[in-house]
Design goal:
Layout lengths: L6 E7 L3 H9 L5 H4 L5 E8 L7 E8 L2 E13 L3 E5 L5 E8 L6 E8 L5 H32 L1
Antiparallel strand pairs: 1-7, 2-3, 3-4, 4-5, 5-6, 6-7
Length: 150
């Protein structure tokens, strides 16, 4: 998890770390299956497709609006940390740490949101954090299901 994140949700799942990471890093087949379809649709890979160098876009439905979002992927620690960067300054980290039991791992999704100016900016940021938390929990549940059952 990044020290400056505004939100972080972690779960220990019954999946080996390498399997979990490979699904997260696969933007053609794996990642689209773990994002909650109620909020994320039409993930399209524009460049690459696995890990660092991948560029993609998707439609996000949030708080009554729809918008197309683009992102680029980096892997500062391949096999452990994957980072998505968005043009608005938002950064999301996926961190996969093996557990003592090799058949399990802890996955953390953390996000740093761009700072909003003044009281309204802080309120908007707080609302977005509250909105994202259950989405990240669902994403971690979907990750475990996809990894265990295909």
């Amino acid at each position: 998890m990044n020290e400056t994140s505004d939100i972080a949700v972690a779960a220990t799942i019954a999946v080996p770390a390498a399997r979990a990471y490979s699904i997260i890093a696969d933007y053609r087949n794996g990642h689209p299956r773990i994002v909650p379809p109620k909020y994320f649709r039409d993930l399209v890979v524009e460049r690459g497709g696995t890990g660092a160098g991948t560029e993609f876009r998707f439609e996000m439905r949030a708080m009554g609006t729809r918008r197309v979002v683009r992102a680029t992927v980096a892997e500062p620690e391949p096999g452990r940390v994957l980072v998505e960067r968005y043009p608005d300054g938002t950064v999301t980290w996926f961190t996969v740490d093996p557990a003592t039991d090799p058949s399990r791992c802890t996955v953390t999704i953390s996000t740093r949101l761009p700072g909003g100016a003044g009281l309204l900016g802080r309120i908007g940021k707080a609302m977005l954090v509250r909105f994202l938390r259950p989405i990240y929990r669902e994403e971690l549940e979907r990750l475990e299901a996809v990894a265990r059952h295909g």
